[in-house]
């Protein structure tokens, strides 16, 4: 299963890169965990019909999926990558059997993950991330019913508008404090992305027109299960307390790069203060600290679908040049319009980060909050351990096993960092990135053994 280029992730970045690379003469293997290409943003777009309420932006992903119909592209669905070995290639699992795909070049396009939104009660049944609910809408046509949307960020507006269009408007929109006035100095640059800004204002207008109750400046989130199995959601706005009841509570506070694969490889990473997360260190083409490994899309820094498409194509051009298929002049000429598109797509980001920053209460939640869902470790336990010597991620793992469960820290690491930073009065940028060991996804010993004898690693 060798290829010139192995791409991990069939979202907008991976699909765009696959087509450019294949047209340039490379053999491409595209690995993705889902049955159909599309990633999280365009999930299931090739098979969806009659769901116009998902919007025109979602439907545009169909062209990228069609672009995979090229003899140079081999799409491997249901493929879970659990290790990338610098010498042996990409190791992935499907249907209980592991495979090795050697490649001269690797492009990691695994996208983003939702930032955890921890507060007392967030682990109860009936609570889930808004992005997860949107996946169900795209994958299965399941529209949330009697739901409250809580948190901040443009995705909340999009999900609310989609629910309204589908005939199941949210019970309420509960928004944490925003800083639109503080973000105004960044608005001039954001105007380069005016079409996206107008779309966002259109979503807000649609929510207002639907008469959805909208609570602003919300804090002190708390959820409990009622006797009839519903969710009681308590919060405050200013000095006023509120208590709402719903069947489903959907939370969201933005997304962060999904970096487990890049960190497991030992690639260089840097702390992004605007995003409050670690991301791989990349050059303008997406090349990592390992020359033959590239990263594109939200996994290298949050930018959205259009930015991901441009980044994927740019990385493919750089790989074609590295492979001797494209000279530098041709690479740069084809890259020019992509860089303009990327600049437009990213122009709105500084404004959004300033306007929708994450409240400190969710970076370091109250003591009774369960932070590590896998090991059921509370925020209070983490604070206590940090104050008695566990002043880093590794020491915290040794002390409390945070990040050592099935999710390997995906749902708790950012909060653990926030709690250690608070308890020790240190910047979050000094507390990571945490070391990730392979396999980065659960795999059985039998599935590993199925690989057969492997060359012995030497130091």
List the helices and strands and how they pair.
Blueprint: E1 3-8, H1 12-23, E2 28-31, H2 56-59, H3 61-66, E3 73-76, E4 80-85, E5 89-94, E6 97-101, E7 103-108, E8 112-114, E9 127-129, H4 130-140, E10 147-151, H5 154-165, E11 172-175, H6 180-183, H7 187-190, H8 194-209, E12 214-215, E13 218-225, E14 231-237, E15 240-246, E16 248-252, E17 255-257, H9 260-264, E18 269-272, E19 277-280, E20 293-295, H10 305-322, H11 328-346, H12 349-355, H13 360-363, E21 370-372, E22 377-378, H14 379-387, H15 393-400, H16 413-424, H17 445-449
Parallel strand pairs: 1-2, 1-7, 2-3, 7-20, 9-16, 10-11, 10-16, 11-12
Antiparallel strand pairs: 4-5, 5-6, 8-17, 13-14, 14-15, 18-19, 21-22
């Amino acid at each position: 299963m060798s290829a010139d280029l192995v791409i991990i992730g069939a979202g907008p970045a991976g699909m765009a890169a696959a087509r450019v690379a294949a047209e340039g003469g490379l053999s491409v293997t595209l690995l993705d965990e889902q049955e159909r290409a599309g990633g999280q943003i365009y999930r299931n777009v090739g098979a969806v019909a009659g769901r116009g309420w998902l919007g025109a932006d979602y439907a545009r992903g169909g062209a990228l999926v069609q672009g995979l119909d090229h003899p140079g592209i081999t799409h491997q669905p249901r493929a879970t990558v659990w290790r990338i070995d610098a010498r042996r290639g990409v190791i992935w699992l499907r249907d209980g059997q592991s495979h090795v795909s050697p490649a001269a070049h690797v492009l990691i396009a695994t996208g983003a993950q939702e930032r955890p939104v921890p507060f007392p009660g967030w682990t109860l049944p009936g609570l889930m991330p808004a992005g997860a609910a949107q996946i169900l809408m795209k994958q299965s046509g399941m529209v949330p019913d009697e739901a409250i949307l809580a948190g901040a960020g443009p995705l909340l507006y999009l999900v609310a508008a989609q629910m309204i269009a589908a005939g199941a408007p949210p019970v309420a929109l509960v928004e944490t404090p925003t800083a639109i006035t503080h973000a105004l100095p960044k608005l001039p640059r954001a105007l380069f992305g005016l079409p996206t800004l107008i779309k966002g204002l259109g979503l807000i207008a649609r929510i207002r027109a639907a008469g959805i109750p909208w609570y602003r400046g919300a804090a002190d989130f708390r959820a409990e299960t009622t006797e009839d199995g519903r969710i009681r959601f308590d919060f405050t706005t200013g000095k006023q307390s509120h208590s709402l009841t719903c069947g489903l509570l959907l939370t969201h506070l933005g997304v962060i790069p999904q970096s487990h694969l890049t960190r497991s490889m030992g690639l260089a990473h840097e702390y992004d203060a605007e995003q409050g997360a670690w991301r791989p260190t990349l050059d303008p083409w997406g090349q990592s600290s390992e020359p033959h490994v590239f990263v594109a899309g939200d996994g290298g820094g949050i930018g959205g679908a259009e930015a991901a498409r441009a980044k994927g194509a740019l990385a493919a051009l750089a790989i074609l040049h590295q492979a001797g298929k494209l000279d530098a002049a041709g690479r740069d000429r084809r890259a020019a319009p992509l860089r303009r598109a990327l600049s437009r797509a990213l122009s709105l980001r500084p404004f959004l980060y300033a306007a929708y920053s994450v409240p400190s209460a969710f970076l370091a939640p109250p003591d009774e909050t369960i932070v590590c869902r896998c090991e059921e470790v509370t925020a209070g336990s983490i604070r206590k351990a940090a104050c008695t010597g566990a002043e880093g991620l590794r020491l915290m793992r040794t002390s409390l096993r945070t990040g050592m469960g099935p999710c390997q820290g995906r749902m708790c690491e950012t909060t653990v960092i926030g709690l250690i930073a608070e308890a020790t009065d240190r910047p979050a940028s000094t507390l990571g990135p945490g070391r990730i060991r392979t396999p980065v996804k659960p795999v059985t010993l039998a599935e590993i053994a199925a690989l057969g004898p492997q060359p012995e690693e030497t130091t």
